[in-house]
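FAQ: What does a ligand-bound record look like?

Like this one, built around zinc ion:
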Amino acid sequence: MLAACVAAADARAAEDPAALARAGTAALEQQRFGDALEAFTRAAALQRGDANHCFGAGVAAFMLGQNDVAQARFECALALKPDYLPAAVWLGDLHYRAGRLGDAISIYETVRQRSPAGRELDEQLATWRKEHELQSRFHAVRTRHFTALFEAAADEPLAREIVERLDAAYWRVGSTLGVYPSQPITVVLYTPEQFGDITKLADWSAAAYDGRIRMSIRGALEQRGELDRVLSHEFVHAVVTMVGGRTVPAWVNEGLATVLEPGGSTDAEAPLAQTGARPALSTLHGSFVGLSRHDAEIAYASAARAVRRLIEQRGAGAIVALLKDLARGASFASAFHQRLAMRYEDFSALVAND
Ligand SMILES: [Zn+2]
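The answer part, i.e. the structure of the complex:
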C-alpha cells in the first residue's frame, strides 16, 4: 500500500514542473547531473515558457559533456529571457571551449547590453577580445584528426611536426583505450609570454587542455622527447573529456594522461619514493592547477600510481567503461564499484599504503 502511495506521489511529481525543478536543483547541488538533466528536461517539456528549466538542463548537460544538448538548452533559456546573465555566461564558456571565440564574444556583448549586471563580464570580454585578435593572425595546418594554430610563418615546420606527433599519439593511445575520437582536436601554439597571458597557469605548467590543447612552443623546440610526452598527455585529457564529460575526478584524468605518456609513469611516480605522504584520493578530485610545484608533483605521482594499479588489476577498458558511465550521469562511487569490481573506499585505502 505504501509503495503504491509513493508511486502515485512520484507520478504526480513527474507531471509537476515546480516539483521537477526542485528535484533538478537538488540533483545539481549534489552533482547528480544525469538526474538533473532528466528532471529539468521533463519540466521544460511541461512548461515551455520557463527559462530556468532550460538553463538547469543546460548546466547538467554541460557537466556531462553533452555539448550539443547544453548549447540548445542555453539558447532556449536566452530566447525566453534575453537578459538571463548566467545562461549567457555558460553558453559563452561553452563556445569558448569549443574554440568559437567570436560566438563567445558576441553572446557576452549581447547580454552585456541587456542586463544591468552585465558589467561583471567586462574583464573576461577584454581578455577574449585580446585572444581573438591574436588568433586572427594565426595560420593553421591540419590532418584528419588535428589542427595546429600558430602565429609565425617560420613555425610551420614545427606545427606540422606537432600534428604528426599527435597523430602517432592518437593511434598509440587509441589502441590502449579502444577510443578513437572522430571530432578534430585543435592545438594552439603560443610563445611563452602569450601562453602565460592567455592560460594564466602556474609556471610549472607548459601545456593545458580546456577544450583545445594550448602549449608554449619555445620549450618544446628545446626538448623533442618532452614534446611527445606533453602532446600525448594533453591528447589523453581531450579523450577523457570527450568520453567522460566534465565530472571525471582529476586523479583519474591526470593519472591516465600520465600513465599513457610514451615513457610510462616511472619518472612521474618517482617522488613517492622520497616521501611516505600519500594524499587520499578523495582529496584529488578537484583540478591540480592551483597546487604548488611540490604538492603538484605528489598529486600527479599519486594519481599515476592509482591509475596504473587499476589498469594492472582490471585493464584500461574498465576505466573507459567507468568514464562512459560518468557521462551518462552515474555517480563516481557507484560507477567505480560496478566497473572496477571493488568499492572506491577499499581501493582508496589500498593505494594509501602503496
Ligand atoms: Zn594533465
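Follow-up question: can I read anything off the structure? Yes, for example: The beta strands are 139-142, 146-150, 185-190, 207-209, 213-216.
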